[in-house]
Design a protein that fits this description.
There is one protein chain. The chain is of the alpha/beta class. Helix content is 29%, strand content 26%. The protein has helices spanning 41-48, 124-128, 130-144, 161-172, 184-193, 206-213, 230-235, 258-264, 276-288, 304-313, and strands at 2-6, 15-19, 29-38, 62-67, 73-76, 79-80, 94-95, 107-111, 115-117, 152-155, 176-181, 197-200, 219-224, 237-245, 267-270, 295-300, 319-323. The strands form four sheets. Strands 3, 4, 5, 8, 9, 16 and 17 form a seven-stranded mixed beta sheet that branches. Strands 12-11-10-13-14-15 form a six-stranded parallel beta sheet, sandwiched between helices. The N and C termini lie close together (12 Å).
């Protein structure tokens, strides 16, 4: 089968197209003939060595294709071994594309319990974009963030896969949506998806600007994938507001004013991935939605290195996909 392999850590050039043997399914697993995969920031961490998994490794956590044993068209939930609890995954849970093989390949073996029907109205590339970014956005907004209609949510970083899903999901749920970006163009594009406004995070006063957009009292909920922005995110909140953190693209260390934190009775919540129940509820929302996943660009499987360059440029808006068949 055709696949893309990381055999050494490095830049996009470390992604090597290869011919590999097809995988053998284990107990409880089935083979899926993949039609498309999609990129996530996690893939670049696997490639560069931030996540130091044993090599060689086929990266990729997002995928959709045809279940070989039944012929069903499916999308793959990327979290393996979530377990029975909803609040946190079980010890030993993993994600496709590290440490086990991922979706940058023609065929993958996955647990049957991780397969869900492909939404009929979506293309293969749109479907492949759903698991990581869409599932993460859904869990962060609703299971962890408890977003309700009429509330105001601030989404940091317009243009990422998670943020484009979050804007559309939150708007569809009746929330007021604000975003941050380094670009007025991306703010305008986010407004087309349902955002009510945005601020430039290149302005040091952006937390105050966000509060003003929210009416002065502050926002109810912030989705923060940057990490180093926790203190700024807290400054945008109303008393009793919530921050859901699910990434550290800006750094993994941060300082906050503890007294201000507990005086305001804020909540800081961690989130990661999506449980089976979250993902099923997300797909149900997708099936009945008026919106579609935002696809920035589609590359052929063998051009995965170029796709990674596009992702790391920061110029993309939405998900980047790989066409496999």
């Amino acid at each position: 089968m055709r696949a893309v392999v990381v055999s050494r850590h490095g830049g996009p050039e470390a992604l090597e197209p290869r011919e590999l043997p097809e995988p053998e399914p284990g107990v409880g697993e089935v083979l899926v003939d993949l039609r498309a995969a999609a990129l996530n920031r996690r893939d670049t961490f696997v490639r560069s060595g931030v996540y130091d998994f044993p090599l060689p490794l086929v990266p990729g956590s997002d995928g959709a294709g045809v279940r070989r044993d039944t012929g069903e068209e499916v999308v793959i939930r990327s979290n393996i071994g979530w377990g029975d609890r909803e609040d946190v995954p079980a010890p030993g849970n993993t994600t496709l594309g590290g440490p086990g093989p991922g979706t940058y390949a023609e065929v993958i073996a996955v647990p049957a319990e991780n397969l869900y029907p492909k939404p009929d109205r979506l293309s293969w590339e749109e479907t492949a974009s759903l698991p990581v970014a869409g599932g993460t956005a859904f869990r962060a907004l609703f299971a962890r963030g408890r977003l309700e209609a009429g509330e105001t949510v601030l989404v940091l970083g317009a243009g990422s896969g998670v943020s484009t899903f979050a804007v559309q999901l939150a708007a569809a749920a009746g929330a007021r949506v604000l975003i941050t970006s380094s670009s007025e163009e991306k703010i305008a594009r986010a407004r087309e998806l349902g955002a009510n406004g945005g601020v430039l995070y290149t302005d040091p006063g952006w937390p105050d600007a966000a509060r003003e957009l929210a009416g002065g009292a502050g926002v109810d909920l912030v989705l923060d994938s940057v990490g180093s922005t926790w203190d700024d995110s807290l400054r945008t909140l109303r008393p009793g507001g919530r921050v859901v953190a699910f990434g550290g693209t800006g750094g993994t260390r941060v300082e906050v004013d503890l007294r201000r934190f507990y005086f305001a009775q804020w909540s800081l919540l961690g989130s990661m991935g999506s449980s089976p129940r979250d993902f099923a509820a997300f797909l149900e929302a997708v099936e009945t939605a008026a919106w579609r996943p935002v696809i920035d660009s589609v590359f052929e499987l063998e051009d995965a290195a170029a796709a990674h360059r596009r992702l790391e440029s920061g110029e993309h808006f939405g998900k980047i996909a790989l066409r496999i068949v």
